[in-house]
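so my prof wants the structure for this chain in the tokens format not the other one, which i didnt know existed until like an hour ago. anyway here's the sequence
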Amino acid sequence: MVSEEVVRTSLGVVGNIISITLFLSVVPTFYRIWKKGSVEQYSPIPYLASFFNCGLWVLYGMPFVQPHSLLVATTNGAGVVIEFGYLVIFLMYSDPRKRVRVALIMLLEILVVGGLVLLVLTLVHTTKKRSSIVGSISIAANVLMYASPLSVMRLVITTRSVEYMPFLLSLFCFCNGLCWFLYALLPFDPFVAVPNGIGAVLGILQLILYATFYKSTKRMLVERKEKAEMGLAEMGSSNMHNGNEANI
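here's what i got, hopefully its the right format
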């Protein structure tokens, strides 16, 4: 019979794979930003929230805080690096005002996590208390994680378009939340189970929105493309007409 520890470790490994895939799922979004040289209507909130959240969970998963959750630290360590890269790209292609605001928020997040590390190591001397303190703060920080998809979901409902809500991101949010929720049940870890259970539910809601507005989004994109082509055709016709008048 397979032991509980083997099942838990297997879920943790699968969770690492899904989480890293989740972090990388928005690469097409940032390729589009790089190609267009603009962040357009993309919001930095999901990436700022993920960067901060991953930093807190790296601390939670360290052996001197939670001795039995190293896999939590590894997956979120990868997340910190990847999200930092995304934010650097976002800074490069934002307007000056947004660039300053995002940079200041990043700096604040780094200072908060660093300060928490120092406080936990110097003032709290047992892993039980450390995991309770850091876990509670991490759950509170997940409010930011929940706010970020909710803001995007509100944009989808308002515009009736999923153009700025990548499908892969929504899909892997659901898979990631579900996997880590199951991981946290063996044995039960409320600090990991609660945020990931909510994450799985939000992932389902995003997928429902995607299915609801997918067709209307395709229709809007086709109409936008047709308008752009008509505009180019009219411009070309106007230029040709002006050229003929000049020759006369």
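also thought this was worth mentioning. The chain has a mean pLDDT of 84.
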